Amino acid sequence: DLVFLGTGSSFPAPHRHTACLAVRFHADGDCWLVDCGESAQVQLVRSGLDRRRVSRIAVTHLHGDHTYGLPGLLSTVAGRAAPDSTLEVVGPSGIRQLLRTSLALTRTDARNGVRLRLRELAGVPSLMPPSSPGSAELENLILRAPEFPPLPYEDVTEPIQCAAPDGGGIWRVCDRLSAAPLRHRIPCVGYRIDIGGPVLAVLGDTCDSQLAESLCRGVDCLVHEATVGESRRDSCVSSGHSTPAMAAEFACRVGAKALVLNHFSPLLDNAGVARLLAEGRAAAAGRLPVFAADELRVFQLTDQGGLVCSDPH
């Protein structure tokens, strides 16, 4: 199952939370998250998913609307997960520093032998120039910052080297999980998840998904951002984002069997998202089904690779 816990961008709104997607595996009951915006833990409770079954969180990039929920959720899981279990967090360089610092300074401890494994994707390229002088200064500050030491309950791992993509631009992260780079304002990736039959691809923020074509080739479901409509394409692309038509064109090009649009501007109401969905469907021109994600909406990937929506529209 795919459970959309947050389908918005930038900042939370009363009707839409920031980015978080839960992937629930029926075979073993485990739950993975892709991104973890600041409302993720509240939405997990509302969804009925068991926070204690979250075993892996794959972060696409380090912008706050994709990461601010991590410290709170990890604090809860560290104290409530099954004894001797391991929670793994994967993300571009900086994810270890973010979590080590926030968890140490908040005195977050782990109980019952719970372990935390932080796996960094080193060398993910930054494919857009800094958006402002302030951004360039921040990049220099990051390079100079000393690294926080490992947490007492952390299983230390070597970074996964991603500087030279192999296998057609796909980086193998771990069992059932691969990644590829995307064009955004900071290093960003998309993930391919083998659910055990069906295959899912979830892309982070992107204004050009070309480098992830091999990653997404023939997937049963592609989740792709569609922040604003086609009338704002120029400003959308310059800020590192995509329109519904761009998402649909890419999905058709890679032969995806279904497309779910996601990561909508928080300024859009439901009617605005409906217009984005219409744009995506028009661009797809019947070549594949196109859906819009919504808060707590559930999609099921069947064993045959079909996508069934709990509330289709």
From TrEMBL:
It comes from the Eukaryota. Its cofactor is Zn(2+). GO terms for cellular component: nucleus. It holds the Pfam family Anti-Pycsar_Apyc1. The keyword Cell membrane does not apply. The keyword ATP-binding does not apply. Residues 183-264 form the Metallo-beta-lactamase domain. GO terms for molecular function: 3'-tRNA processing endoribonuclease activity; metal ion binding. Keywords: Endonuclease, Hydrolase, Metal-binding, Nuclease, tRNA processing, Zinc. Homodimer. This is Metallo-beta-lactamase domain-containing protein. It comes from Macrostomum lignano.
